[in-house]
Design brief:
There is one protein chain. This protein is of the alpha+beta class. It folds into 2 domains: 13-48 and 85-354, no CATH class; 384-547, no CATH class. Helix content is 49%, strand content 7%. It has 20 helices and 10 strands. The protein has helices spanning 24-43, 57-69, 74-79, 91-99, 105-132, 149-152, 156-174, 180-197, 199-218, 226-236, 241-250, 264-272, 283-301, 312-324, 338-350, 358-396, 441-446, 479-485, 488-491, 510-513; strands spanning 13-14, 20-21, 80-82, 305-307, 351-353, 406-410, 460-462, 516-520, 533-538, 542-547. A 4-stranded mixed β-sheet has the order 6-8-10-9. A hairpin with a 3-residue loop joins strand 9 (533-538) and strand 10.
Length: 550
């Protein structure tokens, strides 16, 4: 997985030993075959789970189901309403329903995840070619960072938009010889599209283009007039205006302005996020991060990593913004991990790896291949396990009456530190958060009402009768809270203040408001249950109850 030589593999290049590698048509076909094989391996885990167990993803998939089938299923329309308007993260909402015209919604969701993953690597290769004139093997190292913390949390629309950003930034650089007016008009539309896909990608594009163009002007000879240079710089920034107008128009549709910088621990987590595929660092994550850090240190110290001069300022600007980014930005969680996740792709795109020694090049490539192979094995096997658990719940949910309201209870302490059945603990451990939004699949299978479906700042809203039991920022209820809130006298003493969206806890009057309870107990059933619950189904890691109305 290295360029292995001075200028990449797109043209005849020689080692010091005089061996010529991949010339002409053979080089192109070999490169395409190699990329195709790695892309296939990268996407392989998607074959092992109908619903990828990415934390927020089942919730988003349920929204897609509502967008597609709202008019077909009366029970669904009774629980939810459609609410199309200008929003800063509509990528999945625009694409998955369109794909669902050709395939089932669940499959359309997986295709969207695949497009997001492919976009990261293909966008990196495209930007690399735009900057350096050829692709070579160095950009393929991007596959090591596709399974990152942002993907694990299920922020798939954000990653899909990052891929579009890489293509858009490549297009801006490649179009530098275009006439000014057509170029501005085209990329004003591109920037506006990026905003509608995800505001994070729009911000990255504005930052990258502004820093790139400023860097070019700082490198110009002094004899060029400062005023002329400033005027041309101001002109090119006009392309950002349509996106900024859309942002202003969306402000009234995004209810939360909550922002928090976060602790030192959150910043350390953000640093490791490009190689973290879980809520905490597994040994495999540490190995991948350490290997990447050592390669980077070695390459820089030996002068083997050549950064395109015009990319110095964009990368520096991204690092500065990453340090300033809060953990929660305007209601968006884990915001400080997003630029660190993007940095490896931009760094790989902006550099060339020049290694003259054949053995060293092959050694680095072998190390990268081992890390990549372990990651694909770990993700594939863990998704087999999660897929089996998700399927078990979906089959058991047949006992739920269509259109009913379902509450979720979970005790994470019962699974802390547990290993996955098919993997050693050094590769992955059971992630309780992977089940946080699993209950949203009942929206797909039973048109059920799920209380913390994402209905704030999205294209889906709750029906008026459900507004008092809707909480976008909600999580499963803790067992102790459920038991105490079942008693009206104790419920009055619980903290039920509004959250960052101004919504109160959805579980306040659960015995009267909900019809079913999904209790994620992971086979630890010794804890007492409220008397309002009647057993319907006991699964291997959950229990379904019907709420007995008094």
């Amino acid at each position: 997985m290295t360029d292995a030589v001075g200028h990449g593999l797109g043209s005849p290049t020689r080692h010091r030993t005089g061996v010529t590698l991949f010339t002409g048509r053979v080089a192109r076909w070999a490169l395409v075959t190699f990329y195709g094989a790695l892309w296939t391996a990268m996407l392989a885990p998607l074959l092992f789970a109908a619903v990828p167990p990415l934390i927020d993803y089942p919730n988003h998939l349920a929204r897609m189901w509502i967008l597609v089938h709202h008019g077909d299923i009366p029970e669904l329309a009774g629980n939810y309403v459609l609410n199309w308007r200008i929003l800063p993260d509509m990528g999945m909402d625009l694409i998955v329903p369109a794909l669902a015209q050709m395939m089932p919604v669940v499959d359309a969701g997986r295709v969207f995840v695949a497009l997001a993953m492919l976009g990261l690597v293909a966008g990196t290769a495209t930007l690399h070619r735009t900057l350096h004139g050829r692709v070579g093997l160095w950009p393929v190292w991007a596959v090591l960072f596709v399974y990152n913390a942002v993907l694990f949390w299920g922020f798939v629309t954000c990653l899909f938009a990052v891929g579009l950003y890489l293509f858009a930034f490549s297009g801006w650089i490649a179009s530098r010889r275009w006439p000014a007016l057509p170029r501005l008009l085209v990329f004003a539309g591109v920037a506006a599209l990026l905003f509608l896909t995800h505001v994070f990608a729009f911000g990255l594009y504005c930052l990258s283009v502004a820093a790139y163009e400023l860097g070019l002007r700082l490198r110009l000879p002094r004899r060029r007039g400062l005023l002329k240079s400033a005027a041309s710089y101001a002109l090119l920034c006009l392309q950002f205006i349509p996106g900024l107008v859309l942002w202003y128009a969306s402000l009234g549709n995004v209810k939360s302005a909550y922002t928090a910088y976060g602790s030192l621990g959150s910043k350390l987590n953000a640093l490791f996020s490009p190689a973290t595929f879980g809520t905490s660092l597994a040994p495999l994550d540490r190995l991948t991060w350490l290997a990447a850090a050592l390669v980077l240190f070695f390459a820089i110290s030996r002068g083997a990593l050549k950064l395109a001069p015009e990319m110095r300022l964009p990368l520096a600007a991204m690092i500065v913004v990453a340090l300033m980014m809060p953990e929660v930005a305007n209601g968006s969680w884990i915001a400080d991990s997003r630029i660190p996740v993007v940095l490896p792709f931009v760094l790989i795109a902006g550099t060339r790896l020049q290694i003259e020694r054949r053995r060293l090049a092959y050694g680095l490539g072998l190390s990268a291949a081992i890390c990549f192979g372990l990651r694909i094995w770990a993700v594939s096997q863990s998704w087999v396990d999660y897929g089996r658990w998700f399927d078990e719940f979906r089959q058991a949910a047949a006992v739920i009456a269509p259109g009913s309201k379902m509450l979720v209870v979970e005790d994470e302490r019962s699974v802390a530190g547990q290993a996955l059945p098919g993997l050693p603990e050094v590769l992955a451990e059971l992630q309780p958060n992977a089940f946080r939004h699993m209950g949203a699949l009942a929206v797909i299978d039973r048109a059920a009402y799920f209380p913390y479906l994402f209905t704030q700042a999205t294209t889906v809203g709750v029906a008026p009768e459900n507004r008092e039991i809707a909480q976008t920022a909600g999580v499963p209820v803790e067992p102790e809270t459920l038991i105490r809130s079942a008693n009206p006298a104790e419920a009055a003493s619980l903290d039920t203040r509004p959250d960052v969206y101004g919504q109160r806890p959805y579980w306040r009057d659960w015995p009267n408001a909900f019809d079913y309870v999904l209790w994620l107990d992971f086979a630890e059933r010794r804890q007492p249950r409220p008397e309002q619950l009647s057993l319907l189904h006991a699964g291997s890691f959950f229990t379904l109850y019907r709420v007995v109305k008094r």
